[in-house]
Write a structure and sequence with these properties.
Blueprint lengths: L2 H9 L4 E4 L6 E6 L2 E7 L5 E5 L2 H10 L3 E2 L9 E5 L5 H17 L3 H11 L3
Length: 120
């Protein structure tokens, strides 16, 4: 999966912004100001994604490409090495990450995003 496809998936949902808060090569996608995905755009070989702690453990056991990453809380974040993973599965991980962040937003923000995301 290439950078353009990842960017397309990340920005397809409502409330998403792209920023470089850490340095000029770590792109971060946020929903309503909360980070859900990050990638080193020099390499484009892995993604940092937020996730449900139980699902993260399950995925780490199932896929050698999913592990922990530097500077990421290993309970709530996973480092996903893209090589060898099905693009559909990677898309589902990105969407899961977005959904995890949205679920933690205040109710009014959450409902507004859910409404916007249902528009075709």
């Amino acid at each position: 999966m290439n950078f353009e496809r990842i960017q397309e998936i990340c920005t397809a949902r409502a409330g998403v912004s792209e920023e470089f808060p850490f340095d000029e090569h770590t792109l971060v996608w946020k929903v309503n100001g909360k980070m859900f995905c990050l990638m080193d755009i020099r390499e484009c070989s892995s993604l940092g994604l937020k996730g449900d702690p139980d699902k993260i453990v399950e995925w780490r056991e199932q896929y050698e490409q999913i592990g922990t990453g530097p500077y990421l809380n290993s309970k709530h974040w996973m480092l996903v090495h893209l090589e060898g993973l099905n693009p559909t599965f990677v898309q589902s991980l990105i969407e899961h990450s977005y959904d995890c962040v949205v679920r933690k937003l205040p109710k009014a923000q959450r409902l507004e995003l859910e409404k916007l995301n249902q528009i075709p």
